[in-house]
Amino acid sequence: xxxxxxxxxxxxxxxxxxxxxxxxxxxxxxxxxxxxxxxxxxxxxxxxxxxxxxxxxxxxxxxxxxxxxxxxxxxxxxxxxxxxxxxxxxxxxxxxxxxxxxxxxxxxxxxxxxxxxxxxxxxxxxxxxxxxxxxxxxxxxxxxxxxxxxxxxxxxxxxxxxxxxxxxxxxxxxxxxxxxxxxxxxxxxxxxxxxxxxxxxxxxxxxxxxxxxxxxxxxxxxxxxxxxxxxxxxxxxxxxxxxxxxxxxxxxxxxxxxxxxxxxxxxxxxxxxxxxxxxxxxxxxxxxxxxxxxxxxxxxxxxxxxxxxxxxxxxxxxxxxxx
Length: 323
What we know:
Layout: E1 5-9, H1 17-32, E2 37-40, H2 46-56, E3 61-66, H3 68-77, E4 79-80, E5 83-84, E6 90-95, H4 101-106, H5 112-116, E7 123-135, E8 140-145, E9 148-152, H6 153-162, H7 170-184, E10 188-194, E11 200-204, E12 206-210, E13 232-237, H8 242-254, E14 263-268, E15 270-275, E16 284-286, E17 292-308
């Protein structure tokens, strides 16, 4: 008989610390969920297939144990293309990676053992983003995101961070990645269209399409984003220079940057972005992963996923069930 709770663990997350800690985490989880089936990922993107197979086999609750990339893979497993595999199934996350951006918006503790205490406790009907983009091989790619997708500097940072060690932790790893990327990156001219509006041409350091609030290992880039409000917060970070970045970085981590010069905030349910020069490569960030480049379309799908949140989730009580 298939167990109702299925646990997907990425033992390689946090530079392998998740795998080493698994016996401790498993014992804590067993006290929370008495009967579950567990499987370990062994390759990139395997979490998607494992979660999808479990849902097809009758699992009603998936627990994702790992970093933001692992959680993204598992979220994608809730769908077969655009079709939900099991529309009433629920996802819980146990954050063990280096970034921890999703768990911040969800109000979950940073410590994995404490986060386990909130598994399958407060399911909220959350929105998701659906991304169509140009993959690295030139084909059209499709993916779902729960947190933030962006383009520009962040895509290059992802590429550099994910190809190096994250032994120093999330914030330090991303700051080092930002420093390395800043040497290479040049602000790019991008054409952005929001819903049915007129195309806007901007020279951008970064364009952020936010369903939730944090990216880059704790940067509160979209401080008012709410994954239950049926819209994206779109933050366009314009033609910022080195001085702007040095002055603005502390404000970015605090979520106090939106009033700064060269930063725009919009709201939309559909965003299309393309490099003004088709020969220029503008890389994409999606939940901390680097899947491809512009052109891309970001579409909000309201109420697409039941996702468990922690006690500090900044959502209206009306959308919280089963507390």
